[in-house]
Amino acid sequence: MRDGQPQSRVFRIYEARAQNPIEIEIANGPGEVVGEGAIKPAGKPGVSLAVLLSRWDARRIALAVLAHLSAWAAATYYQRVTENTWQPPHEVVMDPDTGGIIN
Questions:
Q1: Domain residue spans in the chain?
Q2: Distance CA 89, CA 103 (A)
């Protein structure tokens, strides 16, 4: 929150029609609280940044992010298991076909 107002942060990756076909866009601006803590954009973002990447560079970034997340998961595994925070609470029901949360 900034000055008591929720902030919306958007991160999008999509294919663009350009020489470097992968576009990464980051936007930050005013937000509106929806549901239990979710925030959706409310108006035009105050700050926006877009970068065009080649497929090769996009894959390199994706692999670096995957390596970081894997290292974090390994480094915090014991703590998450002992605190029982490694899985959702038992009342969460997941759809076996899609993996989506039902309840």
A1: 7-53, 68-103
A2: 11
